[in-house]
Each structure stands twice: as structure tokens, then as C-alpha cells.
């Protein structure tokens, strides 16, 4: 909690004028305890998980526009009841596992030293820290996810997440409770190693959830901005991991593709991609020979 109750009090103590961001932060956080600020994550989780997938789910259910052409596994169609069943299961898991875990992990948050004071991070500080968190998360998640594909790990824990062989956005956090705890470690490791301001921590948690939802959306849109991020895996990349299922020893990484490339766990995926692009070229050549048009 901030030691100042008002802007003039803070400016007098610091002997300088507060920036706009600092004034906003002071007005918002001055009467809130650090515990209260930390628990904001639970609210953000519910909001992000409910709202971000919603437009795509509605568009898919209503069959609006030409969206089906971008579906990665077009043969798999889920009903409204099946989608809601997934959503309800995850919400229950948030309530009984993620929420309590957040509440009891507060001492760790204090030990890490994430600050809540007036030294608001600059845009650059936020960007650099988020970049570091992404790399740490990706690398750690790769190995933990790979371990979950061992015989024991898969049968006892990870099988639940793979119930969706064609993922949907709401299935991003659909997992065994133990997997939520295990794969929560990479998400906390970055802030633990490079602690910043709580605003950066909130942004990181939101970014991580949005990224997981996008990766599981089941659609490969050519205009997705993430296509411009170097080595970014995306929906099509992770979809292949779900498509292959329990036997999958391919595409373990959660965000980028370089770990799978370095450790040779993307060979099956790259082979399939090569076959697919070859068959597309052949079918295009045949169509041209027979004078066919595409539109
Ligand atoms: Zn897996
Ligand atoms: Zn997945």
C-alpha cells in the first residue's frame, strides 16, 4: 500500500511533480493493500477467459461469413452444449484450484519483491520484461510439457488437456488440476527471476492467457498480427500437437518454435507441412493444365 493518500502529499514527500501515470496509479491504489492488488489477477483471469474467446465462438456457432475456410480441422464441429460444458468445467477449476492457489501464493509474491509503489515502469521496461518472461516461460514450459508426455505423466495428468484433439479457445486452460499447478511454474518463473512492478505482472498474466487462447483457437487466420513475431508458433503449430494426440512427440513449445527445432521435436510436423505444400502445388498445376480457375 502506498504511504501517500493524495497527490500533493506524494509530491511534497518526493519533492517533484508526479507524472500522469503516477497520478493515476496513486488514485487507484492508495487505499488498496498489496494483497488486494495481487488478487486482481483472479478477476483478470475470469474476464480474459470469458471475453476473449467469445467473439470467435459466437461467429462460429452462428456460421457468420466465410470463417469456416480458416478452421484448421474443419471436420470437427462442437455444439453449443459441448462448448459450454468445456467453459463450465474450466470455470469450476478456476474457482476450486486457481483462485485458492493465487490466494495462498501471496507470500511468494512478497518474497519475489514485485513492487507496488509509485515508481511506475516505463514502456521500455515493461516491453523488455515481458520479452524476458516470454522466453523463460517458453523454455521451461517446453521441458515440463515434454515430461508430461512421458507414459506416466500423460496417463495420470496430461491426458485431460488432450481430450480436445481439435482445440477450441475455451479449452486452452482445460487440464487436470495438477497440470495447472505444474505449468503455472513457468509463468511465475520470469517475474521471480526479473521482478518488476505489479502492473507489469498483471500485463504478463493477461498476455499469457491471451496467447494460450489464441494458440488453442482452432483457426489459422492469415491476418493474425502474431504471424509477424519471429519464431512464433501460433494456432496451427499447437493444433498439430493436439491432432496427433497422446503419441505426440512433436511441437511441445507453448509460444515459440525454436526449442522444438533445436531439440528435434518438430520433425513430424515439418514433414507433414512439406507433404501438404507439395500436394497443394501438384493440385494447383493440375487445375491450371485443365484450365480451372480458383474463383
Ligand atoms: Zn501435450
Ligand atoms: Zn494445448
From TrEMBL:
Q: Where in the cell is it found?
A: Membrane
The family classification in the record reads: Belongs to the sterol desaturase family.
Transmembrane ranges, per UniProt, are 43-68, 89-109
Q: Where is the Fatty acid hydroxylase domain?
A: 132-265
Q: What's a Pfam family this protein contains?
A: FA_hydroxylase
Q: Name one GO biological process term.
A: sterol biosynthetic process
User: What GO cellular component is one of the record's annotations?
Assistant: endoplasmic reticulum membrane
Lineage start: Eukaryota, Viridiplantae, Streptophyta, Embryophyta, Tracheophyta
Give UniProt keywords alphabetically.
Membrane, Monooxygenase, Oxidoreductase, Transmembrane, Transmembrane helix
Entry protein name: Methylsterol monooxygenase 1-1
Q: What's the gene?
A: LOC110779099
Q: Does the keyword Repressor apply?
A: no
Q: Name one GO molecular function term.
A: iron ion binding
Amino acid at each position: 500500500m502506498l504511504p501517500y493518500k493524495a497527490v500533493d502529499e506524494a509530491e511534497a514527500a518526493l519533492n517533484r511533480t508526479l507524472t500522469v501515470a503516477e497520478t493515476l496509479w496513486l488514485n487507484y491504489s492508495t487505499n488498496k493493500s498489496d494483497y488486494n492488488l495481487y488478487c486482481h489477477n483472479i478477476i483478470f483471469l475470469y474476464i480474459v477467459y470469458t471475453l476473449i474467446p467469445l467473439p470467435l465462438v459466437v461467429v462460429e456457432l452462428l456460421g457468420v461469413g466465410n470463417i469456416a475456410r480458416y478452421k484448421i480441422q474443419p471436420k470437427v464441429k462442437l455444439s453449443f452444449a459441448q462448448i459450454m460444458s468445456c467453459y463450465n468445467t474450466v470455470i469450476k477449476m478456476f474457482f476450486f484450484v486457481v483462485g485458492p492457489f493465487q490466494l495462498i501464493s501471496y507470500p511468494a509474491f512478497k518474497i519475489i519483491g514485485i513492487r507496488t509503489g509509485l515508481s511506475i515502469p516505463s514502456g521500455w521496461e515493461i516491453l523488455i520484461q515481458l520479452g524476458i518472461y516470454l522466453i523463460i516461460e517458453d523454455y521451461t514450459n517446453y521441458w515440463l510439457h515434454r515430461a508430461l508426455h512421458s507414459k506416466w505423466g500423460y496417463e495420470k495428468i496430461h491426458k485431460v488437456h488432450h481430450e480436445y484433439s481439435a482445440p477450441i479457445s475455451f479449452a486452452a486452460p482445460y487440464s487436470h488440476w495438477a497440470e495447472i499447478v505444474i505449468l503455472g511454474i513457468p509463468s511465475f518463473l520470469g517475474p521471480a527471476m526479473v521482478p518488476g512492478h505489479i502492473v507489469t505482472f498483471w500485463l504478463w498474466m493477461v498476455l499469457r492467457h491471451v496467447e494460450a487462447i489464441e494458440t488453442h483457437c482452432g483457426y489459422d487466420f492469415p491476418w493474425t498480427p502474431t504471424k509477424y513475431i519471429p519464431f512464433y508458433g501460433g494456432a496451427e503449430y499447437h493444433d498439430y500437437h493436439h491432432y496427433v494426440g497422446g503419441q505426440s512427440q512433436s511441437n511441445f513449445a507453448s509460444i515459440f518454435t525454436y526449442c522444438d527445432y533445436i531439440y528435434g521435436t518438430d520433425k513430424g510436423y515439418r514433414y507433414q507441412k512439406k507433404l501438404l505444400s507439395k500436394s497443394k502445388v501438384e493440385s494447383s498445376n493440375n487445375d491450371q493444365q485443365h484450365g480451372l480457375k480458383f474463383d
